[in-house]
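If you are new to this repository, start here. Below is one unmodified record pulled from the training split, so you can see the exact layout before writing a loader.
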Amino acid sequence: MLQPFRRRKALRRGISVRCQAILLEPFRQVGVRLIDLSHHGAMLECDVALVEGDELVVSFPLGLTVIDAVAEVRNVTWDLRRAGLAFTEMDWDARVALFVGLAGVPPKIPLARPAVDYASTVRQIALA
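And here is the target side for that same chain:
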């Protein structure tokens, strides 16, 4: 059986929330919606083009709590309309609220077929 290739540390959840995403340099709003969310990051719909390494302050409601975090842009889609964010700084209470708020939310349905890790597949066949 072919082994799927694993890229992410955490499972992305299929949840869309309104947010405020503020670019630190220069100080301006760059987005108002998170498309999906995990414990480690999110996908942001951008109003302006971002580049990898940009730092943002992101604030969004989840349940009864407002989550505030500092995030770094890790990747940008080819059309520059979405940016993958990794949360770099977050209060302990906010991290717990995020973990609890995402519990029970189903995972995001992938748009493309998952990549196959051929090296793991060959290794598994060789050990069998």
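Two things worth knowing about this chain: The chain has one domain: 17-109. The chain has a mean pLDDT of 84.
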